[in-house]
Amino acid sequence: MGAERQTDVAAGEAPSTGSGQALRLFVGAFVEELARSGVAHACICPGSRSTPLALLLRRHPAIKVWTHLDERSAAYFALGMAKALREPVVVVSTSGTAAVNFAPAVVEAYFARVPLLVLTADRPPELRDVGAPQTIDQVRLYGSHAKWFLEMMLPEASSQAIRFARTAACRAVATARSDAAGPVHVNFPFREPLIPDGGPAPERDAKVSQRDDESPYVSVEEAPRRPDAAGLAPLAAELRAAKRGLIVCGPQDDPRFPEAVARLAADLGYPLLADPLSQVRCGPHHGPIVIDSYDAFLRDEETARALAPDVVLRFGATPVSKPLLLYLQRHGRCRQILVGGGDGWGDPGLTASEALRADPRSLCEALVGALQPAGQVQGADTPSHWAARWQEVAEMARAALTSRLGEEPGMSEPGVFAELADMLPDGALLFAGNSMPVRDLDAFFPGAKRPVRFLANRGASGIDGVVSTALGASAAGSGPMVLVTGDVSLYHDMNGLLAAGRHGLQATIVLLHNDGGGIFSFLPQADDPEHFEELFGTPHGLDFGHAATMYGLSYQRVDSWKGFRSAVRQSMGSPGVGLVEVRTERSANARLHRELWDGVSRAVRKPDREGATP
Fold this sequence. Notes:
Helices cover about 40% and strands about 15% of the residues. By secondary structure, the chain is an alpha/beta fold. It has 3 domains: about 1-210, 3-Layer(aba) Sandwich (Rossmann fold); about 235-395, Rossmann fold (3-Layer(aba) Sandwich); about 415-585, Rossmann fold, CATH 3.40.50.970. α4 (about 70-85) runs parallel beside α6 and α10 (about 255-270) runs parallel beside α14 (about 360-370). It starts with a helix and ends in a 10-residue tail after the last helix.
């Protein structure tokens, strides 16, 4: 009778819910399709209602499980891993406020276009709105910040239900991964009992509900927007005719884009302004056409006015540099072409005159192809007067920055990035915290042919979750990882440090400790001495050496560049996570930055340069 009943259920004649068999078949089918669709990692937080998901993910041989005690840290850890892998990563929570703690990372994933699969367990419909504990409204919990939301049915052992589970998993992975990647939220209501049984799937169910060749139940392929050279011939001719063209690259993470856009810039003779998060600033493609010190010299109004473009090609998300954004606004009447393959609109200055919906790398390659027949390619070795002027100004700016930093008697926050530029090995990953670190990365890390990958949470640009995201990226095993973060940001995410020892990670955290919110010293609020420290500076007096001890990190506080270099190299070459602390003073840091900008302005406006035109 038991065997006959099992066959009937598999055939879909008598669906059942809340049984161990239904959980094993339904949730197991979902998990199986995640693995077949390429998902290899799942971050799981403890909880009762999520037991079916936790157990079946853990039982699957193709999925590695990373356990976390704190939901916010878990979601950011998954975010960092998905960033580094460029592939979807699962994060699982139980019901109630546990799921709400995923929200900051979901928001960041949405705006940063990171494929995140958010699986939340929930109470069944009959326990909602009746006072059951750990029960909130989880339907569309993350609102418009989830690319797609799906409320799963209650688990059944019927073949139709299992087909639904398989299709839902394939669709969730494909949606998270697809053009304009982002987070997908799948909500699972579960009735008790919550333990899936350990038996095999019925043979008849296996035949009707999975593919014989181990391929996904539904294979989803997305045809990229690939323009052809012939169709772009008119645009290529217009770009070639422009006397003062410019390419601006904001954050993006296609590993093949830098070479393509560098080739396009060289063929057009266009200076290429490379945000570090564009991955264009460093790598084998690097050359004089790649401009890295624009944040410094575009602060000078005369220089920004003189370097007036007539056309700008813009790739990637919004650049970090405010002076660059102001420069684009200053010249907002010139032709500015915004290139993107997704639904994002990276134009906060509202200066774009055209928007091209195309895969950025493919567009660059097609434009290069359209330029070749004309036989008028300028090439990287013969820059136009316009490109040569940009290169000259950039070199003078970089020299002025290097000279002034060399004169600084003590350690400084800008100096950290200049030092790291000389220290990081090939294939290193540098993760920058928000507020000042990512801005200093942009300003003070010079370009080079050495391959270095740069990451940051610039989707919503929050300071929370930075530690967990960086450690998640390090867990992906993409090379030595160094995180540079501020003290307030580290305080926000100290829970994330637990992952270091729990998962045997290797990473280096450089802590820029100025006892408060350093970025506010650059803002008008700093002119109100009566309330500044209480409301904005917010000194906390924390000793992070104690946090390092509690979480099992190695710790060194350094007070010289020699000590800094030694500590960072030691940490990068040792197992575990090391915390290297650099103490600075907020007002002195603001003063140094202003002196650096003034020095650059003097360098690029020497008497023999005044009145010069591009």
